[in-house]
């Protein structure tokens, strides 16, 4: 049979990749046809994304796909990191470069926003944990700092919808990415009037919410269908797990962020979920991913940047041989949020909390990985407590994303959590993006997703080992947090 083709544009905060997929006889073969590295830059006092570069990554990816195929791909889907957005004016032109969620402006206004609607209220209205990076906090800061902005904006488009619109898709916001904004009601079937009112956000900014995994337009003159694959990279990563809509399972999508969560059918809006620091984000298939945003390999990436060291594999290998410091940091501490001298920040945190600090790169990397494993364990327990029997002890955790390449972290996670870790796709977002496109264009049926994933990527299972070192480290962290 003839292969069906699709092109996934997967935009991460440090690289954009174009991955061409061909599906034949239930096997999905992928090929990276283009890659661009990029990072947020200061422009006129704000941390901004280079939108021209991101748009050209899409165009260059399409060109490369055409060359590889000898024809236009049947469809294209774009996924990006969550929460960032572009503002269009009333003529549909981009007002200014989209700002990055690590920009400092939200810190100046978050208290004022929480004075208008407290955290419990915002959570109740959206099902999403209030975090300063959320679109809600970002737009509130924009509106405070830019008088007249409210009138100048015709539409707020999350990045994947902005890029899809550039290609020719009508203005609209996919439900999966909408759910990360903190502006949509739980389940993202509509925008939250409560949040819009609290922020003084004109209703006209909020474009129609649309389903994911459906064809939403086409690129003029090519016949290439534009599909919203679940514009959020994490939604795509979860789609790559191949779970049935009602299957409840634990997952970790590990990259700069470590998204640990459980797939559940409906939003869970109970106080315990807020206390556990969890968000109800929407999946590509319309179900929910109940998850926690943990700072993830960002800590390592920033150390690498400080050290000028590209060789992750080498660092991880050395960490495997290094002696453990015996303590861990809280990866979510605000001290680690902004780009900066991460080795110094980690060292200071350890000094301040334990009176010791790592010596040498290998021990520093080990500290980071052990810290992530302990954070994974803490949140896996909370999720299991909330979701119940489907996540009973021993139920596995599916680990996907760049972190799935890091076997040391995967093994530490299995041991700290005392659960088998099932290693899935490294390019999970691209994989889920492609699957959503094939489902939208009719090249694959949703019920065959699991079989396609099984036939297309190798899954390894890592079994837990003796957890006592991790138990000790978690106890020390709990004591350090109280102090
Ligand atoms: C992962 C991710 C998370 C989101 C964070 C910020 O890449 O999309 O899901 O909360 O980045 O955008």
TrEMBL record:
<keyword id="KW-0808">Transferase</keyword>
<dbReference type="InterPro" id="IPR043129">
    <property type="entry name" value="ATPase_NBD"/>
</dbReference>
<feature type="domain" description="Carbohydrate kinase FGGY N-terminal">
    <location>
        <begin position="6"/>
        <end position="219"/>
    </location>
</feature>
<keyword id="KW-0859">Xylose metabolism</keyword>
<dbReference type="InterPro" id="IPR018484">
    <property type="entry name" value="FGGY_N"/>
</dbReference>
<dbReference type="GO" id="GO:0019301">
    <property type="term" value="P:rhamnose catabolic process"/>
</dbReference>
<dbReference type="InterPro" id="IPR018485">
    <property type="entry name" value="FGGY_C"/>
</dbReference>
<keyword id="KW-0547">Nucleotide-binding</keyword>
<dbReference type="Pfam" id="PF02782">
    <property type="entry name" value="FGGY_C"/>
</dbReference>
<dbReference type="Pfam" id="PF00370">
    <property type="entry name" value="FGGY_N"/>
</dbReference>
<feature type="domain" description="Carbohydrate kinase FGGY C-terminal">
    <location>
        <begin position="251"/>
        <end position="438"/>
    </location>
</feature>
<dbReference type="GO" id="GO:0008993">
    <property type="term" value="F:rhamnulokinase activity"/>
</dbReference>
<protein>
    <submittedName>
        <fullName>Rhamnulokinase</fullName>
        <ecNumber>2.7.1.5</ecNumber>
    </submittedName>
</protein>
<dbReference type="InterPro" id="IPR050406">
    <property type="entry name" value="FGGY_Carb_Kinase"/>
</dbReference>
<keyword id="KW-0684">Rhamnose metabolism</keyword>
<comment type="similarity">
    <text>Belongs to the FGGY kinase family.</text>
</comment>
<keyword id="KW-0067">ATP-binding</keyword>
<dbReference type="GO" id="GO:0042732">
    <property type="term" value="P:D-xylose metabolic process"/>
</dbReference>
<keyword id="KW-0119">Carbohydrate metabolism</keyword>
<keyword id="KW-0418">Kinase</keyword>
<dbReference type="InterPro" id="IPR013449">
    <property type="entry name" value="Rhamnulokinase"/>
</dbReference>
<dbReference type="GO" id="GO:0005524">
    <property type="term" value="F:ATP binding"/>
</dbReference>
């Amino acid at each position: 049979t003839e292969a069906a083709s699709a092109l996934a544009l997967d935009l991460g905060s440090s690289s954009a990749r174009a991955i061409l997929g061909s599906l034949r006889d239930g096997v999905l073969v992928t090929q990276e046809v283009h890659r661009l590295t990029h990072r947020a830059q200061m422009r006129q006092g704000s941390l901004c994304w280079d939108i021209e570069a991101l748009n050209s990554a899409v165009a260059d990816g399409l060109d490369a796909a055409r060359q590889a195929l000898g024809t236009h791909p049947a469809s294209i889907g774009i996924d990006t990191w969550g929460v960032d957005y572009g503002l269009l004016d009333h003529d549909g032109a981009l007002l200014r470069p989209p700002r990055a969620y690590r920009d400092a402006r939200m810190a100046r206004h978050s208290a004022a926003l929480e004075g208008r609607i407290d955290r419990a209220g915002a959570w109740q209205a959206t099902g999403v944990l209030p975090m300063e990076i959320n679109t809600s906090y970002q737009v509130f800061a924009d509106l405070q700092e830019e008088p007249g902005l409210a009138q100048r904006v015709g539409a707020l488009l999350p990045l994947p919808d902005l890029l899809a619109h550039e290609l020719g898709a009508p203005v609209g916001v996919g439900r999966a990415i909408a759910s990360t904004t903190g502006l949509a009601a739980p389940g993202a079937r509509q925008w939250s009037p409560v949040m819009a009112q609290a922020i003084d956000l004109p209703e006209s900014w909020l474009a129609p919410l649309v389903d994911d995994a459906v064809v939403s337009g086409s690129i003029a003159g090519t016949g290439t269908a534009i599909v919203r694959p679940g514009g959020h990279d994490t939604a795509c990563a979860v789609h790559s797990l191949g779970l049935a809509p009602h299957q409840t399972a634990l997952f970790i999508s590990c990259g700069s962020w470590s998204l640990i969560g459980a797939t559940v059918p409906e939003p869970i809006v109970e106080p315990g979920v807020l206390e556990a620091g969890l968000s109800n984000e929407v999946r590509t298939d319309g179900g929910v991913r109940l998850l926690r945003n943990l700072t993830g390999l960002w800590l390592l990436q920033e150390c690498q940047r400080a050290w000028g060291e590209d060789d992750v594999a080498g660092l991880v290998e050395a960490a495997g041989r290094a002696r453990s410091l015996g303590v861990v940091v809280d990866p979510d501490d605000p001290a680690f949020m902004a780009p900066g001298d991460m080795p110094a920040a980690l060292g200071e945190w350890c000094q301040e909390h334990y009176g010791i600090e790592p010596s040498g790169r290998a021990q520093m990397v080990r500290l980071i990985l052990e810290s992530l494993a302990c954070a994974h364990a803490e949140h896996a327990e909370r999720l299991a407590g909330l979701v119940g029997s489907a996540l009973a002890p021993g139920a596995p955790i599916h680990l996907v994303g760049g972190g799935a390449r890091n076997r040391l972290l995967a093994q530490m996670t299995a041991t700290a959590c005392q659960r088998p870790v099932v290693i899935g796709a490294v390019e999970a977002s691209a994989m889920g993006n492609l699957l959503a496109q094939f489902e939208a264009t009719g090249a694959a049926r949703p019920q065959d997703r699991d079989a396609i994933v099984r036939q297309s990527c190798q899954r390894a299972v890592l079994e837990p080992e003796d957890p006592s070192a991790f138990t000790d480290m978690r106890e020390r962290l709990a004591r350090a947090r109280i102090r």
